[in-house]
Fold:
Amino acid sequence: CDSGCGGFTTVAACADLSPELVDDYLIEIPYDPKTGSAGFTDYYINKSANGRITVGACDPEQAGNIKVKR
Structure:
């Protein structure tokens, strides 16, 4: 789980969100079809100090960054 994330600087920490999300909100946890797996999605979730959530791709194909902030 200490793998790097090319699209974003991450803390070496992972969380299994399956118990909280699968069945109630998602059929399965999505993962990057080229570089991810069920155990390591190759996506990141970050919560900033002011509470803003960012979700993005660790290894975007064509763009420099693929991310969504909320």
Observations:
- Residues 1-70 form one domain.
- The chain has one helix and three strands.
